[in-house]
Q: What sequence folds into this?
């Protein structure tokens, strides 16, 4: 409700006069609907400034250290005027790329644009929600289509043959053609394959340039379908009247119109139009950040295959010679038989990676969904790595022809040395083959009760290793536990030698057995009990209780346990959880430590 400023000042003046006249300040405050503190403030301001002191004052802070500078606000407005289609997210991203200083957030940029009248009010739409999908690696799938709207000075309107990589949004085809004939479409398609390699699949609509399925009186095979068949490309068609299936290429057409075609004048010739389109497409691929890619550029995610050589044969000549028009003569170079290959795959949300359908499928933890793994594969082992670190190793079920398939699908390349010990060799029946006395290694996580799961059973390895991932080395006679490259314990092997190859995750042992963490014998160290009732030895906290605060205790350090003594009395025995060396044996000072005052020995060790 609007209140006149002068009336508000007179209202406060009447309350102040009653207080100055001797009325109790509590009664006056209750009668005027305010607090005692506010009434005191009105009286003080009236005594110092008179009636002007009863007017409302500005509540604006004296300084705003986080306020956006005028120069930055002007730069945001200038970018918006220069690029009317840039939103707050794009402007924030561009400012972050320009300088190392902290760029304004998306919300800050939006407030600046709204404050300066640079945001057009529009009705909020609530479109249908479609299920998004994307192939896990580049060159898996190309989407192709035709689009019009390229004007020429002579009055003609040309078409464009367009193609986009489904994974990276990299534009692989952008060819201006005067007539969208089947020959023009196939010429653009084969030119793209010469440059980037052969894709695994191609997705198009049901246009007559792409398929003859709907030809009457009977279906025929058109030139585009023949090229796909001869080059091992799986052609996929959308359902009729379903443009959302090829949503990525349709979205590219919208960007092409809004950012390029709507702002150009008619071109003098077809060559001039193609040159302008090539320049804009290069900027789209290399400079324009894509919001669906988390503001990355398409070129940063695109990995082309080895380009293939294509014969330029006219259809009439091909018919006479029995060849194919614009056929890819040589496929991508495949690695020799028996060699290893490397390639990248993206972990799907389910965690199930299918390398070859019906032959090799590997389960990865769902925590790695969306991450890109490097795969090293040959006829014996398949290794998965993330940023140079081994994730898992599984036996290979790949045949020589599967290696060629991986090259076509993932762009596999000849691999370097094997990044980890090979998986166990297997016979045709799938049973692992082990030489007599050959040891195997397997990684297991120790449960809270100090046990590990091995060969459908649980085996005790000690509470000291609870929560840690250890390596178990088994030779049919003994089982050794290895952690941090140190031997933590040895037990009789719970698995017979003929069943070692059946253990899940087993691999050949690649290194000799490491030594124990410490030599035999006990070491003594002194510690003062902290105000929290704890001591720390070798980075391990040991709780003794508040009744021992301030005592100087002796810690006897054994191979697997700590024994804490005070004089001749044994206070506690605790398991040793790590093999870190003891660097401090004596303690300085006596007496009880004060509260909230930590000693250097109580600081938690930094994680390496």
A:
């Amino acid at each position: 409700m609007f209140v006149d400023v002068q009336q508000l000042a007179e209202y406060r003046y009447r309350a102040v006069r009653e207080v100055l006249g001797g009325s109790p300040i509590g009664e006056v405050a209750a009668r005027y609907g305010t607090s005692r503190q506010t009434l005191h403030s009105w009286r003080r301001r009236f005594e110092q400034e008179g009636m002007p002191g009863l007017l409302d004052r500005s509540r604006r802070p004296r300084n705003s250290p986080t306020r956006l500078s005028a120069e930055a606000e002007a730069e945001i407005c200038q970018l918006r005027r220069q690029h009317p289609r840039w939103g707050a997210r794009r402007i924030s991203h561009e400012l972050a790329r320009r300088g190392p200083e902290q760029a304004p957030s998306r919300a800050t940029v939006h407030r600046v644009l709204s404050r300066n009248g640079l945001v057009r009010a529009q009705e909020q739409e609530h479109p249908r929600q479609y299920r998004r999908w994307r192939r896990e690696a580049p060159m898996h799938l190309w989407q192709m289509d035709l689009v019009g709207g390229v004007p020429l000075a002579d009055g003609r309107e040309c078409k464009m043959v367009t193609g986009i990589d489904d994974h990276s949004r990299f534009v692989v085809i952008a060819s201006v053609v005067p007539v969208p004939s089947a020959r023009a479409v196939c010429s653009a398609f084969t030119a793209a394959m010469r440059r980037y390699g052969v894709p695994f699949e191609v997705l198009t609509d049901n246009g007559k340039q792409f398929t003859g399925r709907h030809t009457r009186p009977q279906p025929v095979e058109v030139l585009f379908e023949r090229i796909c068949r001869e080059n091992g490309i799986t052609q996929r068609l959308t359902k009729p009247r379903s443009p959302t299936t090829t949503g990525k290429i349709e979205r590219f057409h919208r960007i092409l119109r809004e950012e390029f075609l709507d702002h150009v004048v008619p071109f003098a010739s077809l060559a001039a139009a193609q040159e302008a389109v090539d320049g804009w497409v290069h900027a789209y691929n290399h400079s324009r950040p894509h919001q669906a890619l988390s503001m990355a550029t398409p070129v940063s995610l695109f990995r082309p295959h080895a380009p293939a050589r294509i014969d330029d044969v006219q259809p009439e000549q091909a018919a006479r010679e029995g060849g194919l028009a614009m056929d890819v003569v040589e496929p991508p170079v495949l690695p020799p038989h028996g060699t290893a290959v490397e390639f990248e795959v993206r972990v799907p949300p389910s965690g199930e990676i299918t390398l070859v359908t019906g032959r090799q499928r590997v389960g990865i933890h769902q925590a790695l969904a969306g991450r890109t793994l490097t795969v090293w594969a040959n006829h014996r082992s398949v290794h998965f790595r993330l940023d140079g670190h081994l994730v898992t190793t599984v036996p290979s079920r790949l045949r020589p022809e599967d290696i060629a398939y991986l090259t076509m699908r993932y762009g596999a390349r000849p691999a370097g040395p094997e990044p980890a010990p090979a998986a166990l060799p297997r016979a045709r029946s799938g049973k692992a083959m082990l030489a007599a006395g050959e040891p195997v290694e397997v990684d297991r996580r120790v449960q809270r009760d100090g046990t590990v799961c091995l060969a459908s059973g649980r085996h005790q390895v000690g509470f000291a290793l609870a929560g840690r991932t250890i390596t178990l080395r088994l030779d049919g006679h003994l089982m050794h536990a290895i952690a941090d490259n140190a031997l933590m314990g040895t037990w009789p092997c719970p698995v017979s030698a003929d069943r070692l190859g059946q253990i899940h995750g087993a691999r050949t042992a690649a290194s000799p057995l490491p030594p124990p963490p410490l030599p035999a014998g006990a070491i003594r160290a002194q510690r003062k009990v902290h105000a929290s009732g704890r001591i720390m030895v070798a980075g391990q906290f040991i709780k003794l209780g508040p009744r021992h605060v301030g005592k100087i205790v002796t810690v006897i350090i054994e191979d697997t346990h700590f024994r804490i003594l005070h004089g001749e009395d044994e206070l506690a025995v605790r398991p040793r959880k790590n093999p870190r060396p003891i660097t401090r044996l004596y303690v300085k000072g006596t007496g009880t430590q004060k509260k909230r005052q930590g000693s250097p020995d109580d600081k938690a060790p930094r994680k390496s």
User: Anything to note?
Assistant: Residues 310-337, 591-608 have pLDDT under 50 and may be disordered.
